[in-house]
Amino acid sequence: MAIIKNNVIMRGASGKHADQVVLRQRFGQTVVCKLPCAYPPKTAAQLANQERFKRANDFAKAAVKDPEKKAYYQSIKKPTQTAFNAAFQDAYHKPEVEVIVEEKVVIKAKSKHPITKVKVGTGYAVLNNKQWEFPLIEKPFTIKVYDVAGNICTIEIQV
Fold first, then answer.
1. How far apart are CA 107 and CA 104, in angstroms?
2. Closest Cα to residue 60, out of 49, 48, 69, 50?
3. Among residues 140, 103, 148, 94, which one has the least CA distance to residue 120?
4. Which residue from 9, 18, 28, 156 puts its CA 20 to 30 A from 88's CA?
């Protein structure tokens, strides 16, 4: 990067010059830079991660504006974190879910944040001693675990 000083011709210039350099204005000075490179199109995974990051950021912004949620995140944050960081982390990471199918369906969700509800098929599981329970259904069914941050973890079960 080169800065142009005291050049009457180049002062205030901007744009691409001779397909080799770009002239830009930064803080009142004319700067010469190399041409920007073309990036390949984003993959589906990159776009999904961008969307997840945006949703987590929006959740964290809203959480620190709400005094009740901010107090909650202040209480669970690490010493080097802010309430915003704790809320963002909460929304970005989905809960880990373990499903045990025996006489009944038992769902154990491991996460730093509280689980609000667990939907099994068309009904809702009941919280019993730190695990969610639901009577066994004889057909394939879907389990959806919802947490405070709005994350939904979906699991398909074939019985």
1. 10
2. 69
3. 140
4. 156
CA distances for 26 relative to 4, 7, 32, angstroms: 11, 16, 10
Alpha-carbon distances of 119 from 93, 112, 114, 158, rounded to whole Å:
19, 20, 15, 16
What ranges make up the beta strands (E) of the chain?
Answer: 2-4, 15-17, 21-26, 29-34, 96-101, 104-110, 115-120, 123-124, 126-128, 131-135, 141-147, 152-157
Residue with tokens 């373990």: 98
Tell me, yes or no, if the pTM score tops 0.90. Answer: no
pLDDT digits (tens, 9 = 90+) for 103-132: 788 888 777 667 888 888 888 888 888 888
Token pair, residue 156, equals 């398909």
Which position has the token pair 């180049």?
A: 10
For residues 120 and 142, what is the distance between their CA atoms, to the nearest angstrom? 6
